[in-house]
Amino acid sequence: MSTMGDASLSEKTGHALVDDIAAKIRERIMSGDIPIGAQLRQAELASDFGVSRTPVREALRQLQTGGLIDVVPNRGAVVRVPAPWEVREAYEVRAELEALAASRAVTRLSRAEMDRLRTANQEMYDRSLAESEAGSARGHSSRQENDVFHTTITTVAQNARLARTIDEINETFPRNVSAQLLVGDDRYREENFREHAAIIDAMERGDAVAAADAMREHVRKAGEHLAQWYERRSSTVFRG
Amino acid sequence: MSTMGDASLSEKTGHALVDDIAAKIRERIMSGDIPIGAQLRQAELASDFGVSRTPVREALRQLQTGGLIDVVPNRGAVVRVPAPWEVREAYEVRAELEALAASRAVTRLSRAEMDRLRTANQEMYDRSLAESEAGSARGHSSRQENDVFHTTITTVAQNARLARTIDEINETFPRNVSAQLLVGDDRYREENFREHAAIIDAMERGDAVAAADAMREHVRKAGEHLAQWYERRSSTVFRG
DNA sequence: CATGGATTGGATGGATCCAATCTAGAGAAC
DNA sequence: GTTCTCTAGATTGGATCCATCCAATCCATG
Q1: What is the rounded average pLDDT of the residues A81-92?
Q2: Positive or negative, the Cα torsion across B88, B25, A73, A25?
Q3: Is nucleic acid strand C under 7 Å from B138's C-beta?
Q4: Is residue B43's beta carbon less than 7 angstroms from any atom in nucleic acid strand C?
Q5: Most distant CA pair in chain B: distance in Å?
Q6: Which of B161, B165, B168 sits opposite A86 (nearest CB)?
Q7: Residue B174 in 3-state DSSP?
Q8: pLDDT reported for residue B9
Q9: pLDDT of residue A138
Q10: Fewest 10 Å CB contacts: which of B90, B153, B182, B191?
Q11: Does the pLDDT of residue A165 top 60, yes or no?
């Protein structure tokens, strides 16, 4: 019965096999596998994962509180289509949080981590450039490298709550969209690279306020780009 | 059958009768009706609300992702007991967010709202003073007035995401605890009143950075007080 | 008398069943 | 030909059933 799409469900490690399903659904949405605006049918997801509808429902509740999907009472769940102004609002908050993270990171960054940031930034630039020329549909690796930059800073900041809050914001918007921006627009890629470098420089100087300011502006600018992307594709469904 | 504790469940307004249950459980925890560290038994909650266990389970999932409760795989859910360092972390984040809210509020505050803030602050001071002298167990009204101050600022800030993020942090910690601080300690009450006044003054002057700084410091100080409260009662269960 | 293992009770988690609701499509009336 | 209505299918949401797992108790044995 059922297609049994993934075998990794047979984890008896003890904890959370419902959370697994939530994570998988989230990943499908994040990667663009499930497009924004799409309907999420419980029965389909259940058979996909080889489980009953019950854990799927609970997983959907989690995603609902996360804000990634909308659950209309008797009409099921749909992947939320962010309005441009929502993106701006979210990124204004994220900017402030990441600025705080950068500020905290200044006094905690080790030499090794600093180097890691620089290489990650360089890698991201090179890869997104390569992917742009290759014309690959979606930026896989360059997105990961871009994530490395931000996640290392939030990790070094040593504030679990801060990291979690930033994550919650990021998990509201599918990643593949923001990833496309990196490989798509040459000007934006260049800009992104230089802003990252400026942040690293400020942190290396030990200038907390400069690092915070640079980070805040960087995130806000990224948010503006993302918002404009959603504006252009306002009524169009992505990858329908 | 069952006690049918609340009749308001029969809402056919269309949306979310599961969310209602989540809200009720949350309220019970917030008010201290269900103490921190207490076990939440699904069957008990279900019969309390006159529903089956299914919606209760989903509600618990929501509270889990909110961080208010811990769900251990086969051992049920318990109200989370915040560690002092968690309080400090959370309030450092909240401080930054409320600072942003105050900053944004400066250019958006109307005359009427400004007055409302002042009266709310005064009311809170008077009531918490009265409640302190009356020796009432928990601060009901003074807490509400204190909330009014912060919520009006976040509302005026006109950023739904920001308001929601702040709420999420607040909903991690039961309110009755922080409310007790207001009525309990004379010095803290006085300090709280003056800090609020200073924030209002800065906003009235139109000084966004001053308002943000004052707010940030105010929230951080409040967080420090709260953290110390949890430190004192570290292993003691509240209202067991 | 203490300790270790088995047993029993209770609670959670997943699956299934059933009712209520919404959507789509066919057919009739204008 | 268009529109309204009614019915049939599908889908969600709540209730119930059953297996699994954990914890505490009790008994046997050293």
Answers
A1: 95
A2: positive
A3: no
A4: yes
A5: 60
A6: B161
A7: coil
A8: 31
A9: 55
A10: B191
A11: yes
Task: Quick: pLDDT tens for B29-40.
Answer: 998 888 888 889
Minimum-distance residue to D15 (CA–C1'): B52
pLDDT score for B139: 57
Q: Which residues sit opposite B72 in a β-bridge?
A: B76
Q: How far is the CA of A173 from the C1' of D11 (A)?
A: 27
**Nearest neighbour of A96 by CB, restricted to B62, B86, B100:** B100
Measured CA to CA, the distance from residue A143 to residue A128 in angstroms comes to 8
* Alpha-carbon span A109 to A101, nearest angstrom: 11
Q: Which residue is nearest to nucleotide D13 (CA to C1')?
A: A74
User: With a 7 Å cutoff on the CB, does B70 touch strand C?
Assistant: no
How near does any CA of chain B get to the CA of A161, in Å?
A: 6
Choose from A15, A60, A61, A158 for mutation: most chain B CBs within 10 A.
A61
CB neighbours (10 Å) of residue A115?
11
Query: In chain A, what residues touch B161 (CB-CB under 8 Å)?
Result: 86, 89-90, 92-93, 169
Tokens 């260049």 correspond to A190
CB-nearest partner of A62 from B65, B93, B165: B65
Each residue's pLDDT tens digit, B39-83:
899 999 998 998 999 999 989 988 988 889 988 888 888 998 889
CB–CB of A218/A16 below 8 Å? no
CA distance B41 to B53: 10
Q: How many CB atoms lie within 10 A of CB B118?
A: 16
Burial track A123-134 (b if 16+ CB lie within 10 A, e otherwise): bbbebbbebbee
CA angle B49, B148, B175 (to 5 degrees): 45
List the structure tokens of B65.
Answer: 């992702």
Q: How close does chain B come to A73, measured CA to CA in Å?
A: 5
CA–CA separation, A25 vs A56, rounded Å? 9
What is the widest separation between alpha-carbon atoms in chain A? Answer: 61
Residue A177 — pLDDT band, cuts 50, 70, 90?
confident
* The token pair that represents B175 in the structure block: 């309110």
Q: What distance in Å separates the CA atoms of residue A16 and residue A133, rounded to the nearest whole number?
A: 42
Amino acid at A86: E
DSSP one-letter string for A81-101: ---HHHHHHHHHHHHHHHHHH
Chain A residues with CB under 8 Å of B12 CB are none
